[in-house]
Amino acid sequence: MPDIVTLKALCEELKIDPREAREKLRAAVGDAKANLELAKARKPRTPWQWIKGSAAEKEARAAIAKPDGPQQRKATDDAKM
């Protein structure tokens, strides 16, 4: 059985809040042209998980590790106030 990488494991490794990671992943899946493998691997209403070493896992890592843009960060900061 192949090794599975979960969102929880990625978040712990990258020291990122899981809620923010899910937001970034949803946005990345919405842009299927840029993240084809990630979009193909995503099944609605299932946990975020990938086969270790797969192209989808690499795209997920890239999407999660990508810093927020100034627009997105500003909106998040305003919501916290």
Structure description:
With 81 residues, the protein is mainly α. It has one domain (4-80). Helices cover 60% and strands 7% of the residues. It contains 5 helices and 2 strands. The protein has a two-stranded antiparallel sheet with strand order 1-2. Helix 2 (18-30) crosses helix 4. The chain is globular and about 40 Å long.
Short synopsis of the structure:
The chain is mainly alpha-helical.
Which SSEs are present, and which pair or pack?
Elements: E1 4-6, H1 7-14, H2 18-30, H3 36-41, E2 49-51, H4 55-65, H5 70-80
Antiparallel strand pairs: 1-2
Helix pairs in contact: 2-4
For the largest beta-sheet, the strand count, sense and barrel status come to: 2 strands, antiparallel
Which word captures the global form?
A: globular
Cα-to-Cα separation, first versus last residue: 47 Å
Helix content: 55-70%
Order of helices and strands: EHHHEHH
Give me the side-by-side strand order of the main sheet: 1-2
- Give the domain tally: 1
Protein structure class: mainly alpha
What is the overall pLDDT average? Answer: 88
Number of strands: 2
Q: Low-confidence stretches at least 5 residues in length (pLDDT < 50)?
A: none
From the alpha carbons, calculate the radius of gyration and give it in angstroms: 13 Å
The number of distinct helices, counting runs of at least 4 residues, comes to 5
Q: Strand-residue fraction?
A: 5-15%
